[in-house]
């Protein structure tokens, strides 16, 4: 048995030895992205990596994976074979429908699909943590569960994995997101709410089609859609208190069939991000009222479909404090970032509603290498020097959790 300092030094040594592999894995997954619930090749490659390490795994939820690293510390299991404790580490594995424009040598080979959010990094970092952990089994006082989760970008993957048993017998969970708003190498691990409630909407507009030269003969659904895009922003700036965080984004606008035909129908889709439960509950009615009145003003009709996504992500206080201690052990107190949180959403929130845990942000911003673009940008890139740090932190957190 080693001291805490010796264990941390061992983690650092093993991470340094596997850093090139972590980066190589990240580049491979970046070059071969797959959309949500279609991560067939991605999952197969992860399984091959796990098998090579001798880590048993189970395929679930079509493209999800649950793997197990059993500790060999004297108190890791009781006489009945039950682990003293079980901690889960999670990585999401899906990509986005984005046409990459980074020009990187390992740019996406799947045209129109890109790891523009960093999930390629998450896969590589968790595989890196696995490589470290299998060499430290004697320091694992229980069991580490690895969760490779599909379909995070469409907000259903965590629920699929939970239904498949990913949290069965789990005492705590840890997750991480590579983050473009934080300087490379710094880590935010604060308690409390860190990410927003995430909901989705679609508006179907019905007007009357007509010849483009005779607009008075119809009701232009495209004009109504354009009006709604603007009106929805008025809802943010004039209908909600400026002290209440809220974002309404229209991501798609579709309408029309030909350049000389006034569109008789159109639709738009988008997302609503809220911080408080009260505002979240009020948004469907507020959107419906605004949409109905705007459409009627033009003589059209509009139907709102509103879909609840994931609740806001909130870190358990004890788990966040444990994560902060792990950061300090590895990188010193100066590595802790002061970050207020974000109105982005994360389906990791579903795990945290069921078991205590922490979700941290690992900074990857570095202007010197143009790693400044926001998540979901076609120009998104990261400072790869932080990847080994992510593997180290996941390892340290798991070891610390199980040693308590």
UniProtKB/TrEMBL annotation:
List, for all copies, the residue spans of the domain called Peptidase M20 dimerisation. Answer: 199-295
So which cofactors does this thing need? Mn(2+)
Q: Does the keyword Hydrolase apply?
A: yes
- Residues that bind Mn(2+), according to the entry? 117, 119, 153, 177, 376
By what name is this protein known?
Answer: Amidohydrolase
The biological process GO terms on file are: diaminopimelate biosynthetic process
| Cross-referenced InterPro entries | Amidohydrolase, Bact_exopeptidase_dim_dom, Peptidase_M20, Peptidase_M20_dimer
Q: Name one GO molecular function term.
A: metal ion binding
Signal peptide from the UniProt entry:
none
Read off the PANTHER family from this record. METALLOPEPTIDASE, PUTATIVE (AFU_ORTHOLOGUE AFUA_6G09600)-RELATED, PEPTIDASE M20 FAMILY MEMBER
What is written in the cofactor note of this entry? The Mn(2+) ion enhances activity.
| Keywords attached to this entry | Hydrolase, Manganese, Metal-binding
Species assigned in the record? Slackia piriformis YIT 12062
Top-level division of the source organism's lineage: Bacteria
Would the keyword Metal-binding turn up in this protein's UniProt record?
yes
């Amino acid at each position: 048995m080693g001291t805490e300092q010796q264990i941390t030094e061992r983690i650092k040594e093993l991470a340094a030895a596997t850093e090139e592999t972590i980066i190589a894995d990240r580049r491979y997954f970046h070059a071969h992205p797959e959309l949500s619930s279609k991560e067939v090749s991605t999952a197969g490659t992860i399984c091959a990596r796990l098998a090579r390490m001798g880590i048993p795994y189970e395929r679930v939820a079509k493209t999800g994976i649950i793997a197990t690293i059993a500790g060999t510390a004297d108190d890791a299991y009781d006489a009945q074979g039950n682990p003293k404790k079980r901690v889960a580490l999670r990585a999401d594995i899906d990509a986005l429908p984005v046409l990459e424009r980074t020009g990187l040598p390992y740019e996406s080979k799947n045209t129109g699909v890109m790891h523009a959010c960093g999930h390629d990094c998450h896969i590589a970092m968790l595989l890196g943590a696995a490589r470290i952990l299998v060499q430290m089994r004697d320091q694992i006082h229980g069991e580490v569960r690895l969760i490779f989760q599909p379909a995070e970008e469409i907000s259903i993957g965590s629920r699929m994995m939970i239904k498949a048993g990913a949290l069965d017998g789990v005492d705590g969970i840890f997750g991480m997101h590579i983050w473009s708003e934080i300087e490379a190498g710094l880590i935010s691990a604060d308690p409390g709410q860190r990410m927003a409630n995430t909901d989705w909407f679609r508006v179907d507009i019905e007007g009357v089609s007509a010849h483009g030269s005779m607009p008075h003969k119809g009701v232009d659904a495209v004009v109504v859609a354009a009006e709604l895009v603007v009106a929805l922003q008025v809802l943010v700036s004039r209908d909600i208190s400026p002290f209440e965080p809220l974002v309404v984004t229209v991501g798609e606008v579709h309408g029309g069939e030909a350049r000389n035909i006034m569109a008789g129908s159109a639709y738009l889709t988008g997302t609503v991000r809220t911080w408080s439960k009260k505002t979240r509950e009020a948004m469907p009615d507020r959107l419906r009222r605004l949409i109905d009145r705007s459409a009627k003003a033009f003589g059209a009709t509009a139907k709102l479909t509103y879909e609840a996504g994931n609740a806001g992500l909130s870190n358990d206080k004890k788990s966040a404090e444990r994560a902060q201690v792990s950061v300090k052990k590895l990188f010193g107190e100066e590595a802790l970032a002061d970050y207020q949180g974000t109105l982005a959403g994360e389906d990791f929130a579903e795990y945290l509603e069921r078991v205590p845990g922490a979700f941290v942000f690992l900074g990857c911003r570095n202007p010197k290498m143009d790693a400044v673009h926001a998540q979901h940008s076609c120009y998104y890139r990261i400072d790869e020097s932080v990847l080994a740090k992510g593997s180290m932190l996941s390892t340290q957190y798991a070891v610390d959790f199980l040693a308590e």
